[in-house]
Amino acid sequence: MDFTAQPKPATALCGVVSADGKIAYPPGVKEITDKITTDEMIKRLKMVVKTFMDMDQDSEDEKQQYLPLALHLASEFFLRNPNKDVRLLVACCLADIFRIYAPEAPYTSHDKLKDIFLFITRQLKGLEDTKSPQFNRYFYLLENLAWVKSYNICFELEDCNEIFIQLFRTLFSVINNSHNKKVQMHMLDLMSSIIMEGDGVTQELLDSILINLIPAHKNLNKQSFDLAKVLLKRTVQTIEACIANFFNQVLVLGRSSVSDLSEHVFDLIQELFAIDPHLLLSVMPQLEFKLKSNDGEERLAVVRLLAKLFGSKDSDLATQNRPLWQCFLGRFNDIHVPVRLESVKFASHCLMNHPDLAKDLTEYLKVRSHDPEEAIRHDVIVTIITAAKRDLALVNDQLLGFVRERTLDKRWRVRKEAMMGLAQLYKKYCLHGEAGKEAAEKVSWIKDKLLHIYYQNSIDDKLLVEKIFAQYLVPHNLETEERMKCLYYLYASLDPNAVKALNEMWKCQNMLRSHVRELLDLHKQPTSEANCSAMFGKLMTIAKNLPDPGKAQDFVKKFNQVLGDDEKLRSQLELLISPTCSCKQADICVREIARKLANPKQPTNPFLEMVKFLLERIAPVHIDSEAISALVKLMNKSIEGTADDEEEGVSPDTAIRSGLELLKVLSFTHPTSFHSAETYESLLQCLRMEDDKVAEAAIQIFRNTGHKIETDLPQIRSTLIPILHQKAKRGTPHQAKQAVHCIHAIFTNKEVQLAQIFEVQAIKLLVRWLLGMKNNQSKSANSTLRLLSAMLVSEGDLTEQKRISKSDMSRLRLAAGSAIMKLAQEPCYHEIITPEQFQLCALVINDECYQVRQIFAQKLHKALVKLLLPLEYMAIFALCAKDPVKERRAHARQCLLKNISIRREYIKQNPMATEKLLSLLPEYVVPYMIHLLAHDPDFTRSQDVDQLRDIKECLWFMLEVLMTKNENNSHAFMKKMAENIKLTRDAQSPDESKTNEKLYTVCDVALCVINSKSALCNADSPKDPVLPMKFFTQPEKDFCNDKSYISEETRVLLLTGKPKPAGVLGAVNKPLSATGRKPYVRSTGTETGSNINVNSELNPSTGNRSREQSSEAAETGVSENEENPVRIISVTPVKNIDPVKNKEINSDQATQGNISSDRGKKRTVTAAGAENIQQKTDEKVDESGPPAPSKPRRGRRPKSESQGNATKNDDLNKPINKGRKRAAVGQESPGGLEAGNAKAPKLQDLAKKAAPAERQIDLQR
After folding, report:
1. Burial class (CB in 10 A: 0-12, 13-18, 19+), 149
2. Which of 143, 168, 750, 1211 has the maximal Cβ count within 10 Å?
């Protein structure tokens, strides 16, 4: 450099100079000229720097001494020195000089000052390298300048703006992340002092600051952005006006030339607002003006800007500037589509950062959710779902409702977005429970809505629902227990339409699975034209179940070709659709097939995507045997009450019922998965539940899945059969229907099983039909009665081919007898019931099966006590004297007491009833009883003492109850009836002398009993009895029958001789009527309830039978006692019938339990003693007597004359076959039901009854 041209410092400029005119240097520092080396110069300058560094402003002498040196250091030689170290040292000296000589600089020339500050500014670039050895000196330079505010001297210069711009640019360019806070602080101090202490900020200087906020620069140097941000915050009060002027020029006046940053004006506004909203106080109204611009692109830019300003997290612009906010919301309805789209996108950030603005946005989003533009509707959904995924509390129910509506949008893209968005919300808040139960409740409707979409016609919608179900509603990748728990409670909480949709989904998948299975079966067959045609049809069917069926057809054909060529692939597919495929195996198969079909060279493979769609639909990703077992365990926990039903928001009853329905549906699609003893045991438990719906579903599950139960699970089979029979007979109509279907589907001997059900139900059906008609114009009742009679005559086996079990025969006999009794309750049918049919019905009460006798007696009593049956049916109870079970006899007596009491009370309370005394007065039962006993199949020889003793016991069984009170001289009335009967003939066989003889014999036995029991019977009868014309003919005028049909010896034997064993009187609680007879001891059911315990097949299980019979008995007892209060002593068999509750005797009926003492006194002591002894003998024989063979079955008439005279003649010597067997005491048949107890006949009569002849009834009457 040429230093000769440099001016020498003059005295006037330098001030005090040394005497010799030279520059004064600090001690030890030699003169610094261009003649020394650079290193020496640096060495000497360091010493000068040290000297100036140590000087302060108060050293006036030194200031004068070194003034020439200060001027010398500002010479061009130093300012333009090529060595950066020299320049740095000089800059440091100059900075100290400005500090020492402040506030007046030693340099008065404006040009010199400009050169000096530009020089110093250039040296500040050295701050960039913090690792430089000289960085500390650069920092010292910056610190000195900032502390002294040396640049403020430049305010006096005309072109100071150039210096400041250069300084700002330099500082912003050198700042980096290696600088510490002190460097940034000194820079800020330096720049802020210039801004705040100057007269204003020029546009160029403002640009030098704002340019660092532009995104491009911001990304290049984050530290410069931070420096500018802090600088603007510090100088906001000063610089705000300058910023407002800049934006006014650009936005309002449109003068984009005022700054190079005009094109970045919206970016700058966004950044300035983020830095400090106060920087834009005057700018915001200008934006409102821009929002109303006619230029759509300009509006779009402003909307984008304001969306960022309003949506920023800490922004309160919407509340501070409501006019601008309302103006911005108006852009949601802008005519320009991009503007509306941008507005909708903004809503997401606004909802997330400002939930308080959701109310303002809701109405506008509602309108945009119906926007004609697909993209806008799509973005509305994205906006709401994005906010909801961030926090469900950010969106209200109305916003979620908009998404719900869009699931039915006409565009697939919008529907898909809405469905997937809702599915994600459900998984997050319901399955994972990320926001608690309240949030889960808020979106609980999603599962129903998504499944409802399965009703849409589009195959795309159906496939998406299936995908959502597998990935979001019940994620298939969960462990089996967790997956089934999710499915269990999901199914329980779905609405009915959603349940149907889910069932339909499984049905469609199963159907597609069967189509693929059939396709694979066609591949196994030899190639033929028919085979190819069938295969083509199957391929078309499969294609219809895939998206875009047109393209799918080509892909399915291609896939079919691959299957034909690749046997391994075909085997993988067969495994995938096999009933035994597990979920894990299915996942492996799908991956393996996809891997084989993948083409690495073709990233997007439409063929592979289509195959994946098919595999996803047919793969059993949810249900297998392990899953069914887990479901059943969950249901068992609900039944036991140990499940988390309430926590899941489902009641236990709902969980059980829904669980059964779920299993029922799965039993259609995955029947093989149910085949395990554990699963079936749980289903059997459900079958026994009281809930009809649960039982019905369990039956259907057995029907769908139990095809191997008979062969593989015999224990389950043996338990299931009786339950199905019980449901078929006594269950609801739906249960009965399903039980029949189940029997037909499971068992090989279905004909036998179904016959047991249908025959009984057919009888009931006929009776119900007749009762509904209430007339016999079609003569249907006659044929029905003949059928029922034939059923009784054939002992329950109409075909008589012995193909039906004894238990079923017993059921049929009970059904037939009950049916006749039911028809008799209707007057039009009662009239056509013949005496023979009535007698067959009556004999059911002596059936060999204990349960038949018990149930028939209960039904008979129930109908009589309600006055539904004619009076003659009360006579049937007389036959109960022959029942071998003491408790049954006691129960029959209680029924008689109750019925007689009710009828007498009814007559008293209803004066008009006197007109119907023939059908109401209890004493009128005597003629019916006499006629019934005369036709008793056991009464075959009128002079047989044993048979007459049977007749006497039956008569006394009824007469004892009737004669407890002699109301209106009833004893004489009954005697008169018996005498009058002897003046008539048997209307049933008026011309048969033997029949009439038997009738008269029974009348004599009855007269004998009445005469012996009552002394008041000889009085005159108050009225002449009326005999039923159906059973007795009209008395002939000249006919007189004063013959005694029983000898005196027989009469004495009947009254004083050995009575028949086990008299009923020892088992009840009423005193004997005869003098000296031991009074009855009141007993309870438990005292007399140990007589018998019969195992029967009438009801499948002993436990169930006991409960049902107990329930029926209890129900009968209650109905009896409620209608007419009377003390009922229940004497019932153990485990067969519950004791009937006792009630108090009313005053009118109290005497029924006690026999008149006057009547008792008229009996002789001898007779009384004999009877007393005989009673004890009865009890011993009844309780401990040896069992005897049962009598032949009762109910058959003698063979017709066409069978030959030999048979007819043999009748005189051989006893008639009694058809219905009498049950033997203590004996049980192998079947159990037919092993009822029988009253033992006399041993001496066994030989006579060894070969009885059968009797047949005329069914044509």
Report:
1. middle
2. 168
pLDDT band at 768 (very low <50, low <70, confident <90, very high): confident
- Say whether 1172 sits in a helix, a strand or coil: helix
Collapsing DSSP states into helix, strand and coil, what is residue 1258? coil
Structure tokens at 1104: 């169930």
pLDDT digits (tens, 9 = 90+) for 699-734: 989 989 988 888 888 888 888 888 888 888 788 888
Contacts with 219 (C-beta within 8 Å, 6 or more apart), sequence order: none
Looking at residue 1018, its pLDDT comes to 66
Can you read off the two tokens belonging to residue 220?
């290049």
Q: Measured between alpha carbons, how far is 660 from 686 in angstroms, rounded to an integer?
A: 8
Q: Show the tokens assigned to 503.
A: 């069932």
3-state secondary structure of 921: coil
Environment class of residue 919 by beta-carbon count within 10 Å: exposed (0-12), middle (13-18) or buried (19+)? middle
Closest CA to 779 of 791, 792, 767, 770: 770
What is the distance between the terminal CA atoms of the chain, rounded to a whole angstrom? 156
- 23-27, 1040-1044, 1180-1184, 1249-1253 — which one is most confidently predicted on average? 1040-1044
Q: pLDDT tens digits, residue range 500-552?
A: 999 999 999 999 999 999 999 999 888 889 999 999 999 999 999 898 888 88
E-assigned strand segments in 552-612: none
Question: Would you place residue 454 in the very low, low, confident or very high pLDDT band (cuts 50, 70, 90)?
Answer: very high
Name the residue with tokens 């070969």.
1251
Establish how many alpha carbons lie within 13 A of residue 1057's alpha carbon, considering only the half-sphere containing its beta carbon: 13
Q: Does residue 414 contact residue 373 with C-beta atoms inside 8 Å?
A: no
DSSP-derived secondary structure for 72-109: HHTSHHHHT-S-HHHHHHHHHHHHHHHHHSTTS-S---
SS3 1032: strand
pLDDT band per the 50, 70, 90 thresholds, residue 1227: very low
Which ranges of 315-411 would DSSP assign to H, the alpha helix? 317-320, 322-329, 337-353, 358-368, 374-390, 397-406
Cis amide linkage into residue 103, ω under 30° from 0: yes
Alpha-carbon gap, residue 99 to 865, rounded angstroms: 130
1216: which strand partners?
Answer: 1253
Radius of gyration of the chain (CA): 57
What's the distance, CA 335 to chain centroid? 49
**How far is the C-alpha of 139 from the C-alpha of 143, rounded, in Å?**
6
| C-beta atoms surrounding 530 within 10 Å | 9
Residue type at 911? P
508's tokens: 């469609």
For 127-172, the pLDDT digits (tens) are 888 888 888 888 888 888 888 888 888 888 878 888 888 888 888 8
CA 355, 357, 359, 364 torsion: positive or negative? negative
Q: Which amino acid is at 542?
A: I
State the residue for tokens 């030999």: 1206
CB 849 within 8 A of CB 1238: no
Report whether pLDDT(1034) > 80: yes
For residue range 796-852, what is the model confidence (pLDDT) as tens digits?
A: 887 777 777 788 888 889 999 999 999 999 888 888 899 999 999 999 999 999 999
Exposure on the CB side of residue 1235, measured as CA atoms within 13 A: 13
Establish how many alpha carbons lie within 13 A of residue 1165's alpha carbon, considering only the half-sphere containing its beta carbon. Answer: 0
Question: How far is residue 620's CA from residue 682's CA, in Å, rounded to a whole number?
Answer: 24
Q: Residue 257 CB: number of other CB atoms within 10 A?
A: 9
- Alpha-carbon distance of 270 to 831, in angstroms, equals 105
| DSSP codes of every residue in 1072-1097 | -SSTTPPPPPP--HHHHTTS-----S
CA–CA gap between residue 308 and residue 306 (Å, rounded): 5
The two structure tokens encoding residue 1025 = 């009895």
> For the chain, what's the residue count?
1261
Q: What is the distance between the alpha carbons of residues 172 and 425, in angstroms, rounded to a whole number?
A: 47
